[in-house]
Design a protein that fits this description.
Blueprint (H helix, E strand, L loop, with lengths): L2 E4 L14 E4 L2 E7 L14 H18 L7 E8 L5 H11 L6 E6 L9 E8 L5
Parallel strand pairs: 4-5
Antiparallel strand pairs: 1-2, 2-3, 3-6, 4-6
Length: 130
Protein backbone atom coordinates (compact mmCIF):
# COMPACT_ATOMS: atom_id res chain seq x y z
CA UNK A 1 0.00 0.00 0.00
CA UNK A 2 1.35 3.39 -0.94
CA UNK A 3 1.56 6.00 1.75
CA UNK A 4 2.21 9.71 1.78
CA UNK A 5 3.87 11.93 4.30
CA UNK A 6 1.77 14.70 5.85
CA UNK A 7 3.80 17.76 6.82
CA UNK A 8 3.02 21.33 7.79
CA UNK A 9 4.90 24.28 9.20
CA UNK A 10 1.80 24.95 11.35
CA UNK A 11 2.74 22.07 13.69
CA UNK A 12 6.09 21.43 15.36
CA UNK A 13 8.71 19.82 13.16
CA UNK A 14 9.72 16.30 14.08
CA UNK A 15 12.36 16.21 16.82
CA UNK A 16 13.35 12.64 16.00
CA UNK A 17 13.26 10.00 13.31
CA UNK A 18 9.55 10.16 12.50
CA UNK A 19 7.09 11.97 10.24
CA UNK A 20 4.43 14.36 11.52
CA UNK A 21 1.83 12.18 9.86
CA UNK A 22 1.46 9.32 7.41
CA UNK A 23 -1.59 8.68 5.25
CA UNK A 24 -2.00 5.05 4.22
CA UNK A 25 -5.08 4.38 2.17
CA UNK A 26 -8.04 6.05 3.88
CA UNK A 27 -6.31 6.21 7.27
CA UNK A 28 -4.17 9.03 8.65
CA UNK A 29 -1.78 8.34 11.51
CA UNK A 30 -0.61 11.43 13.39
CA UNK A 31 2.56 11.22 15.44
CA UNK A 32 2.50 12.27 19.06
CA UNK A 33 2.18 16.00 19.49
CA UNK A 34 3.63 17.80 22.46
CA UNK A 35 2.86 21.41 23.39
CA UNK A 36 5.56 23.08 21.33
CA UNK A 37 4.89 26.34 19.51
CA UNK A 38 5.61 25.45 15.87
CA UNK A 39 7.21 28.84 15.21
CA UNK A 40 9.69 28.75 18.09
CA UNK A 41 9.83 24.99 18.82
CA UNK A 42 9.63 25.95 22.50
CA UNK A 43 7.17 24.79 25.16
CA UNK A 44 4.16 27.12 25.33
CA UNK A 45 3.95 29.09 28.59
CA UNK A 46 0.89 29.07 30.82
CA UNK A 47 0.76 25.68 32.50
CA UNK A 48 -1.24 22.57 31.79
CA UNK A 49 -4.29 24.24 30.22
CA UNK A 50 -2.08 26.05 27.69
CA UNK A 51 -0.19 22.83 27.02
CA UNK A 52 -3.39 20.86 26.36
CA UNK A 53 -4.71 23.54 23.98
CA UNK A 54 -1.41 23.63 22.06
CA UNK A 55 -1.44 19.86 21.62
CA UNK A 56 -4.96 20.06 20.15
CA UNK A 57 -3.95 23.01 17.93
CA UNK A 58 -1.00 20.97 16.63
CA UNK A 59 -3.26 17.99 15.90
CA UNK A 60 -5.73 20.33 14.17
CA UNK A 61 -2.99 21.74 11.93
CA UNK A 62 -1.87 18.27 10.89
CA UNK A 63 -5.43 17.13 10.18
CA UNK A 64 -6.00 20.23 8.06
CA UNK A 65 -2.74 19.58 6.17
CA UNK A 66 -4.30 16.26 5.14
CA UNK A 67 -7.56 17.94 4.11
CA UNK A 68 -9.73 16.93 7.08
CA UNK A 69 -10.64 18.28 10.51
CA UNK A 70 -10.51 16.82 14.00
CA UNK A 71 -14.00 15.44 13.38
CA UNK A 72 -12.19 12.73 11.38
CA UNK A 73 -10.41 11.43 14.49
CA UNK A 74 -11.54 7.90 15.27
CA UNK A 75 -8.94 7.10 17.98
CA UNK A 76 -7.11 9.49 20.27
CA UNK A 77 -4.37 8.55 22.72
CA UNK A 78 -3.46 11.06 25.43
CA UNK A 79 -0.40 10.65 27.62
CA UNK A 80 -0.17 12.57 30.90
CA UNK A 81 2.63 12.77 33.43
CA UNK A 82 0.00 13.50 36.08
CA UNK A 83 -3.44 11.91 35.83
CA UNK A 84 -4.77 14.71 38.04
CA UNK A 85 -5.02 16.63 34.73
CA UNK A 86 -7.60 14.16 33.38
CA UNK A 87 -10.51 16.56 34.05
CA UNK A 88 -8.70 19.43 32.31
CA UNK A 89 -8.18 17.23 29.25
CA UNK A 90 -11.93 16.45 29.18
CA UNK A 91 -12.91 20.10 29.52
CA UNK A 92 -10.51 21.41 26.89
CA UNK A 93 -11.10 18.49 24.54
CA UNK A 94 -14.76 19.56 24.39
CA UNK A 95 -13.56 22.85 22.83
CA UNK A 96 -12.07 20.92 19.88
CA UNK A 97 -14.40 17.92 19.48
CA UNK A 98 -18.16 17.46 19.31
CA UNK A 99 -20.17 14.26 19.71
CA UNK A 100 -19.77 11.62 18.66
CA UNK A 101 -16.37 11.78 20.34
CA UNK A 102 -13.56 9.54 19.13
CA UNK A 103 -12.50 6.43 20.98
CA UNK A 104 -9.83 7.49 23.48
CA UNK A 105 -7.28 6.29 25.95
CA UNK A 106 -5.66 8.44 28.64
CA UNK A 107 -2.44 6.92 29.89
CA UNK A 108 -0.31 7.98 32.84
CA UNK A 109 3.40 8.01 32.03
CA UNK A 110 6.54 8.74 34.04
CA UNK A 111 7.97 11.33 31.63
CA UNK A 112 7.54 12.86 28.17
CA UNK A 113 9.96 14.52 25.73
CA UNK A 114 11.25 17.96 26.69
CA UNK A 115 9.69 17.62 30.16
CA UNK A 116 6.17 18.40 28.92
CA UNK A 117 3.06 17.25 30.80
CA UNK A 118 0.99 16.00 27.84
CA UNK A 119 1.35 14.30 24.48
CA UNK A 120 -1.37 13.04 22.15
CA UNK A 121 -1.46 11.06 18.93
CA UNK A 122 -4.42 10.26 16.71
CA UNK A 123 -5.77 8.02 13.99
CA UNK A 124 -8.15 9.65 11.50
CA UNK A 125 -10.45 8.37 8.78
CA UNK A 126 -9.66 10.41 5.67
CA UNK A 127 -13.10 9.87 4.20
CA UNK A 128 -14.73 11.54 7.27
CA UNK A 129 -14.86 15.30 7.82
CA UNK A 130 -17.23 18.12 8.79
Amino acid sequence: MKHRVIETQQAPQAIGTYSQGIAAGDVLYLSGQIPLDPMTMELVPGGIDAEIRQVFRNLTSLAEAAGVSLSAVVKLNVYLTDLAHFAAVNTIMAEYFTPPYPARAVIGVAALPRGVQIEADAILALGKSD
